[in-house]
Amino acid sequence: MSSSDITKNPFASTGSLDTNPFDDPFADRTSQYSHEAQARQVELSERERDLERREQELNNKAEHIRKHGRNNWPPFYPLIFHSIADEIPDASKPLITRLYQLWLVLFGTLIINMVACIFILTSGASDGGKDLGASIGYIFVIGALSFLLWYRPIYNGYMKVRLLDVLTIIVN
């Protein structure tokens, strides 16, 4: 032991006299907790902004669905809204239904053509592969183009009554 250790008062205060002895000894920890609380508050406000943004997106989507309808066609991968019962005036429903049936007959004919080409390929014809490839191409090209360039413009024309009135005036 050194001589300074012997003369040192073991009961002497190491703190200053300006501090309150009744202060909370965990005050430093509460400041740590307050930093954590602030960080949590920042995180919660970010989540709240994100939820508000998502709510706005959902409201916009609901408004779009209310305005334009929900995409329902084709059934396996809906791209457009197609509902003869909801969008076409009563006087034009039989005509548009018949046109849609004709388009379905065209598409069915293309499917039957592909099946026939599969039979030609399995029977051993020399050009069976070319025929099958062409029939598959016909399904996608003719099927899609006939819907987009033939049926859908007629459907849209009858859906919008004002356009129908203009066409009636031009034809007469």
TrEMBL record:
Presence of the UniProt keyword Membrane in the record: yes
Assigned GO CC terms: recycling endosome membrane; trans-Golgi network membrane
Alphabetically ordered keywords of this record: Membrane, Transmembrane, Transmembrane helix
UniProt region (Disordered), positions on chain: 1-54
Disulfide bond keyword on record: no
UniProt protein name: Secretory carrier membrane protein
Regions that span the bilayer: 102-126, 132-151
Protein's GO biological process: protein transport
Membrane topology value: Multi-pass membrane protein
Ranges of compositional bias, category Basic and acidic residues: 43-54
Organism in which the protein naturally occurs: Hericium alpestre
Family annotation (InterPro entries): SCAMP
